[in-house]
Structure formats: structure tokens, C-alpha cells
């Protein structure tokens, strides 16, 4: 038994050397992808609402000015980000809707997004990460009821997203917990890792995002990757030594 224990450090060192020779980490890699303007070309919440109104409940267009007033309240700090999401949901698509109806709307929207709104570099990066054996997770402030169908169509089974409160077989406009944005997204990512039985020190983490609100997640990652960023985001990436990519280009992929 003593000889086995004595030989263990040498065995571990050999495994590390072999991993280095073959260019592979002994640790599993988990790649977290933001959705809006990272994988997609446009913000998905306003896109989902607009498309749903026009296709399924056009009479609600008359309520848009009210939502715009609430948006002004958000801009001046009178309304929280979580609350405006609830208001937009309740006013524009209903405060209490059968899940089967939401699922139909969300499925149609997901088909539309995947056909018309995914950045080409994002598709290539997802394929490259999958081919490398990395686990891929969509981590988004978007509502799960449409983020999950988009993820499924991209071949992603793990999704961290904002949850709507449910009442039986109905989806309400209220949030069940925090809007998964900023520090709340980092908390959700950490909770997901814990729930999957992962210890942070046993993983390599990548995080892809276009927006400074994901700075906590990008800093948490072993490799933060800023994609499609504006000038301020590119400057932030430079300060923190994050990789910068433009996923409008089909060649912008990291190994």
C-alpha cells in the first residue's frame, strides 16, 4: 500500500505531462454562452414581443405607448429592470397565458431566430467547442420559455435563464426569482455548477459575451471572451486581458 501511495505523485505528473504533450487539459471545460447580441444578432426579448404581437395578438399594439412610458421610467431609475420585464410581458402578451400557447409562440420564434438571426461565428464556435468535447451552456437573461427552444435548435441541452412564475399549466408575467442579469447571472452560473456537482477548481471555464453587464461572469471564467463588443466593451476586454472576437466573421473562432 505504501508503494502505491509513493507512486501516486509520479503517476499524476506523468498524466499531466501526457496532457501537455497532446495539448489537452486534464480538467473538463465548460463553455457558457450569453444569448442576446452574442449568439444572436439582435436582443431577443423585444424581438419576441414584437413578433408575437404582430402575428398572434395585433390588438395589443395600442398598448405599446404605455410600455414606452414605463421604459422611460426605467431609464431614469424609477423602475427596476426586473419590474419592466414583468410589465412588458403582462401588457404585451398577457398576465396569465396557457403554457401550450406560449410554447407555440416560442417554438415559432425559435425557428425564426435560428433561420435569420444567429451570428455565423457563433455557430462555428459552438461547433468547435462541441468537437473539442467541451460542455456548452447557454446562460442568458432571456426567458427560459423561448431561450430553451433556441438552445435545442442549436444542439445545446443546458440552459440557465430567467424563469417566469407558473400557475399550474399557465405562465404568468411575474418572475420566479431574479432576472438573470449582471451579478445575478454569476450567481445563477455558480448555482448551476454546484447543482451539477462541479467544484470550480476542478474545471476550466470559458464565458462568451458581448456586454459589460457580464463582466462578473467574464472575470469568473478562466478565459473571458468578448464578442461583437462596442468600443467600451473592447476597452474593458483590453483592461482585463479578455480575448476579443467578431462573430459576424466566419473565421473568428478560438481553439
Please specify the SSE layout and strand pairing.
Blueprint: H1 2-21, E1 29-33, H2 44-56, H3 64-75, H4 81-92, E2 96-98, H5 99-116, H6 120-131, E3 135-143, H7 144-153, E4 158-162, E5 164-167, E6 170-175, H8 183-195, E7 204-209, H9 215-220, E8 223-227, H10 231-240, E9 243-245
Parallel strand pairs: 1-3, 1-7, 3-4, 7-8, 8-9
Antiparallel strand pairs: 2-6, 5-6
Helix pairs in contact: 3-4, 5-7
Walk me through this protein's architecture.
The chain is α/β, with parallel strands linked by helices and 255 residues long. It has a single domain, classed as Rossmann fold (3-Layer(aba) Sandwich), CATH 3.40.50.1000. 49% of the residues lie in helices and 18% in strands. It contains 10 helices and 9 strands. The strands form 2 sheets. Strands 4-3-1-7-8-9 form a 6-stranded parallel β-sheet. The protein has a 3-stranded antiparallel β-sheet with strand order 2-6-5. It is globular. Residues 1-8 and 10-23 have low confidence and may be disordered.
Name given to the CATH architecture: 3-Layer(aba) Sandwich
Mean pLDDT: 90
CATH fold annotation: Rossmann fold
Instruction: Decide which structural class fits the backbone.
Output: alpha/beta
List the strand order in the largest sheet.
4-3-1-7-8-9
How much of the polypeptide forms β-strand, as a percent range?
A: 15-25%
How would you describe this structure in keywords?
255 residues; six-stranded parallel beta sheet; Rossmann fold; single chain; 10 helices; three-stranded antiparallel beta sheet; alpha/beta
Amino acid at each position: 500500500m505504501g508503494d502505491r501511495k509513493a507512486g501516486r505523485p509520479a503517476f499524476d505528473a506523468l498524466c499531466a505531462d501526457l496532457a501537455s504533450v497532446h495539448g489537452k487539459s486534464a480538467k473538463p471545460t465548460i463553455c457558457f454562452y450569453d444569448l442576446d447580441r452574442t449568439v444572436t444578432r439582435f436582443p431577443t426579448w423585444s424581438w419576441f414581443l414584437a413578433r408575437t404581437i404582430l402575428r398572434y395578438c395585433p390588438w395589443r399594439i395600442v398598448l405599446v405607448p404605455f410600455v414606452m412610458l414605463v421604459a422611460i421610467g426605467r431609464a431614469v431609475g424609477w423602475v427596476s429592470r426586473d419590474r419592466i420585464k414583468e410589465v412588458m410581458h403582462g401588457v404585451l402578451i398577457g398576465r396569465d397565458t396557457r403554457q401550450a400557447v406560449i410554447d407555440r409562440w416560442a417554438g415559432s420564434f425559435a425557428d425564426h431566430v435560428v433561420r435569420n438571426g444567429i451570428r455565423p461565428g457563433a455557430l462555428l464556435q459552438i461547433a468547435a467547442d462541441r468537437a473539442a468535447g467541451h460542455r456548452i451552456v447557454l446562460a442568458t437573461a432571456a426567458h427560459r420559455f423561448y431561450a430553451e427552444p433556441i438552445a435545442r435548435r442549436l444542439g445545446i441541452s443546458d440552459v440557465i435563464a430567467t424563469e417566469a412564475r407558473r400557475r399550474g399549466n399557465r405562465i404568468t408575467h411575474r418572475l420566479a426569482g431574479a432576472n438573470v442579469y449582471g451579478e445575478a447571472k454569476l450567481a445563477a452560473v455558480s448555482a448551476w455548477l454546484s447543482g451539477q456537482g462541479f467544484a470550480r477548481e476542478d474545471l476550466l471555464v470559458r464565458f462568451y459575451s458581448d456586454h459589460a453587464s457580464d463582466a462578473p461572469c467574464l472575470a469568473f471564467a478562466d478565459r473571458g471572451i468578448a464578442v461583437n463588443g462596442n468600443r467600451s466593451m473592447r476597452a474593458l476586454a483590453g483592461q482585463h486581458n479578455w480575448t476579443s472576437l467578431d462573430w459576424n466573421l466566419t473565421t473568428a473562432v478560438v481553439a
